[in-house]
Structure formats: structure tokens, C-alpha cells
Amino acid sequence: MDYTYDIKMFKETFESEYTWLNGFLRNVMRFGDNPALFDPIKNQRWTYSELNRECNKFANAMKKSGVKKSDIVFNQLYNSPYFVFSYIAPQKLGAISNPANFNLSPGETAEIINHNKPKVYIYDSAITNTAVKALKLAEHKPEIIIMADYTDSYENAPEGHIKYEDFVNNQSEDNPPVDFKPHIYDEVLRLQTSGTTGTPKGIPLNNINEVLSAHDVIMHFPLSPYDKTMNMTPWFHRGGIHSGGITPSLYVGAEIIIMREFHPKKTLDYVQKYSITFLIGVPSVLGLLASRQEKHPKDISALKGIVTMGSPLEKQDCIRFQEVLTPNIFNGYGTTESFWNTFLRPQDLPEMSGSAGKSCTDDEVRVVKVYEDKKAKPDEVVPTDNKTEGEIIIKCPAKTTYCYINNETVTKEKFYKGWMYTGDIGTWDKNNFVTIAGRKDDMIISKGENIYPARIEEAINMFDKVNECIVTSVPDKTRGEAVVAYVIPENDDLTVSEILEFCKNSPNLSKYQVPRYFRLVDDVPRTATGKKQHYKVKAQAKEDLANGLLLRK
User: Cβ(506)–Cβ(538) under 8 Å?
Assistant: First the structure.
């Protein structure tokens, strides 16, 4: 290709040096004595220089044990210093950090180990039993197995495992020599997504994805070297590590306050004590924070904002959070594959609450037609009338690699012509604000009508006697499928008759959308990041119907 200038030096420099790790190392030089990481439980703080030295010890220990470019470093860790070390140190060797949910069963963990074939497996001592069982089940055996004993509950690691402190003992604190040629397309992070079926898929992210995911957060918060962030959700998922987590915070020079496990009282105590400027969590977590703040108020005036994602933010909740916690509420929508892709800023709220916002600065989001036997083309958009439903598709080359690891079939299903087909159903308006209706694979077809659970859930949640609900379906001879609502009562005296009457009179529900079956429950199934698991409750509903546990209207 002909260019109007000599591209050689730019190309070589950009492609080999524009990496997340180099951004972090720049901060080690310019902010070396500034705080980078603080663990309130251990009361331990690392400056940027100290954090780099600790990561170097881990990297040099792995290098000495034979870890090299493109090797997988698999971890199941709570939010902890070890998670940060396991994110940064592999990048110094050209290896790939592969975090996964610490709540997975031994069988699920073994499945990921077999799929990704890690050379290193590092786990939190709190899940030692799971790790031991998973390794027995797995056909692939990692060469290096490390127990991060955060609680100091084990004097010795299980046989064949080594404690983190013993592994890094006496290792050099110097940056390891770079014996590989870095490239912006090199995979540095591999996330796992459960999707809607529960089957994990490996999602590769490269150097440029990490840099531009960091930039996305930095400009949307905005985030600066003077901020202190705390993510109330686990770091092992995209929203955890990227939305105010390790990736943007350490890239911009901010400080991370570690929250190992969410607790509303502890969160508010930390905000007051450590002057945290940004909190990140799902809407259900914000509800718990608001309740605590209303009863036991703390000085949280240091907060510049709270960023929420994972589910829509309903208007009544939004107003409450703005009044009780901070007027600066942000809400993002996206996927593990593509991070967030639409965004609601404080200026959009509460007016546009309930919607997912409009596309982020570097992204494009459309709503296209839905066909039973094929994908719609990217230009087959539905009208911008906020009524006509279609599938939400996303173009975000900055933040995705457009593929899954060793899964060509699903890759072809989800990615097409530079777009990701999310499987989410929604509408959009003339200003391109997108509203989520539900998922294609959660869709209920009853008497020929397409019904999306999210719409019914939002309507039922408006009842002041309802705390939360999840909607699914069961097979029905005359309807094909019948709608089922599992409801968590706000009050002990709530009855099914009251819920039914509320639904019948709701202006937000059509007659065919009113649930036919109900069950009052104490909880609904969720992922570790707070998302409702409709596929689990769908299986449960079928059993409950057979066992006579569903109440019929």
C-alpha cells in the first residue's frame, strides 16, 4: 500500500510498544511513590514502585519455572492483592492472565482447565477444596499450582501445591528481561463467560483491547490520577476488571481500594475513611447501599460518582440513588465480549432511566430486524420509534477481538461483518437511546405472541410489596408456553392474589403478558456479578410445575 509518508518507525513503535503494561510502567516512573493499591483488611498499601517490584518477583519466579510467551496463567481469586499480581506479572513474560469465577463447581473449573490448558493455576485458599477436586477431575494438569493463602489459614499447601509466598521467596525485584517481541495483537487476558446457557466460553483480549478499554473508562467517568476507585463486584468479569477496576485505574495512575467481598456497611465505611471517589456495582447492590445510608448515614461526600452496569436502572431506583448516595449516577450496558457499549451519564438521568443509553464514544450500536432462519444484515435496522423490537448489535473494534477461543461455531453465530450480535432484544428512539426488552433465548412465545421477561419484571417490581422478581415460562398445551413469575416479597403479607390484581391493572402489561403462574420465593438465581440466571429458573419452573409448587391464576 502506498502512503504519503514513511510509516516504518511509527508502525514498529506503535505495534510493539502501545501496550497496557508499558502504560503501567510509565506510572511506575512518574508516580512511583504514589499509592497504587490498598488492602483495608490487611491495612497494607503498595505504591506504584512497590507494586511493580512485587509483580516482578512473581514474574521472575514464573520465568524460572519455564513460563513463557502465550502460556496461560489461570486464576480463581477473590478481589485481593494476588489478583492484581496475577494480572500484571504474566504480561511481563508475554503470558496470558485467565481469571475465572471462584464460585464455580469443581466440574466447571475442570472444564475450563481442560479447555485452556494453563501452565499455572493460582487459587485463593478459601476455595482449596474446589481446587483440589477440580485438579483430580481435569485431564490437563497444570505444571505449577499455587495457593494464595490470603487468610493465613494453611500452614502448608496441599501436596503438589506451593504457597504464593514460598513461590516468590528470594526472587529478583527487577523487571524480567524481555525475551519476546510484544505486539498489540498479542492476547494478554482471557475471560470466561457463562452466556445464557451456562456453558463457559473463552474470550481473548489483546494489548490494544486493554489500552482502549482503559481509555474508554478514563474518558467516560472521567478518571484521573487523583481518583480512588473501589469495585463492589468481583474483578474476574469484564465489568469488574475494566469498569473502574485494575485495567483503567492502574493505567491512568489512580489508586485502587480492594473490596474482597461486598458488604454495604463496610462499603460506606470505606468511602468515608478513605475518601473513595468512584464506586462500581450492579443496581441491586446500590439498593443495599441506599438502605444502609438511609438508616446509618456516613459522610460519602468524596464520591464523584457511582457507576452501575449489568442490568437496567429503573426510574424510581435512580431517583432514590441520586438523592441518597450521589447525584452522579452512571449506567453502562454491554457484554463480556465487548465491555460496555452504551452509556447513561448523570445528565441523562433520571429522565432516560430504564433505557440502556446511547452508544459510547468509539462504538456504534444498532437495533436490527429478527429473522427465524438467518441474521439480519447490519443495515436492516428497525424504525427508531421506541416501539419496534429487534436484535441489538454492536460494533466496537477497540474493545473486542471478535472471536472465542477454539469455538468457531459460536464465533460465527455471534460475530458478522465487524458487528457482534448480542442476542438481546430491544428498541431505540430517534436519538438512538436503546431500551432492552429481553433476550432472544429468554423469549417466551405464548399463543403466537413474543414475550420478553425483562418487561414483565420491570412492571411487577413497581409493586411496593415486591422486592424483586424473575420471569420465565413453562410448557403449556394450549398456549405453547405459559408465563411464570417468581416473586420475592417486600412484605410478609404479600399474596399471589394481590400480585395478580396488580398485574391485571398495570398500564405496562398487555393481557397476554400477565403471568399465569406464580411462586413466592426468598431469592432468585444470579451470577457472581448479579445478573439474573433465566436459564436456571426456567429449568426450576418445569420441576415446580410437575411438583405442584406453582400457583395458578
Answer: no
- For the chain, give the percent of residues with pLDDT over 90: 84
* Mean pLDDT confidence for 226-240: 95
> In CATH, what number does 50-208 get?
3.40.50.980
Q: What digits encode the pLDDT tens for the residues 1-43?
A: 889 999 999 999 999 999 999 999 999 999 999 999 999 999 9
State the amino acid at position 404 in one-letter form: Y
Residue 528 and residue 234 in contact, taking contact as beta carbons nearer than 8 Å: yes
Q: Does domain 450-552 have CATH number 3.30.300.30?
A: yes
Query: Between β-strands 517-520 and 551-552, what pairing exists: parallel, antiparallel or unpaired?
Result: antiparallel
HSE of 483, CA atoms in CB hemisphere, 13 A:
31
Distance CA 504, CA 193 (A): 37
How far is residue 453 from each of residues 138, 216, 356, 366, 513, measured CA to CA in Å?
Answer: 37, 31, 16, 21, 9
Q: Which fold has domain 262-439?
A: Rossmann fold (3.40.50)
- pTM equals 0.86
- Those residues whose C-beta lies under 8 Å from the C-beta of residue 381, and which sit 6 or more positions away, are 366, 367, 368, 369, 390
User: Which of 39, 481, 13 is closest to 274 using CA atoms?
Assistant: 39
With a CB cutoff of 8 Å and minimum separation 6, the contacts of 156 are: 163
CB 196 within 8 A of CB 423: yes
Q: Which three cell numbers stand for residue 56?
A: 516482578
Q: Residue holding cell 421506541?
A: 386
305 alpha-carbon distance from chain centroid: 19
- Whether 262-439 and 450-552 share one fold: the answer is no
553 pLDDT above the threshold of 90: no
Quote the percentage of the chain above a pLDDT of 70: 99
Tens of pLDDT, residue by residue over 356-380, are 999 999 999 999 999 878 999 999 9
Grid coordinates representing 126 are 478459601
Which residues, including other chains, have CB under 8 Å from residue 60's CB and lie 6 or more apart?
171, 172, 174, 176
Provide the residue ranges of all domains of the chain, joining segments of one domain with +.
Answer: 50-208, 262-439, 450-552
Cα 20 versus chain centre, distance: 19
Q: 264-274 and 283-295 are packed helices; what angle lies between their axes, rounded to 10 degrees?
A: 70
Tell me the three-class secondary structure of 258-311, residue by residue.
CCCCCCHHHHHHHHHHHCCCEEECCHHHHHHHHHHHHHCCCCCCCCCEEEEECC
Q: What are phi and psi of 183, to 5 degrees?
A: -145, 145
The pLDDT of residue 445 is 83
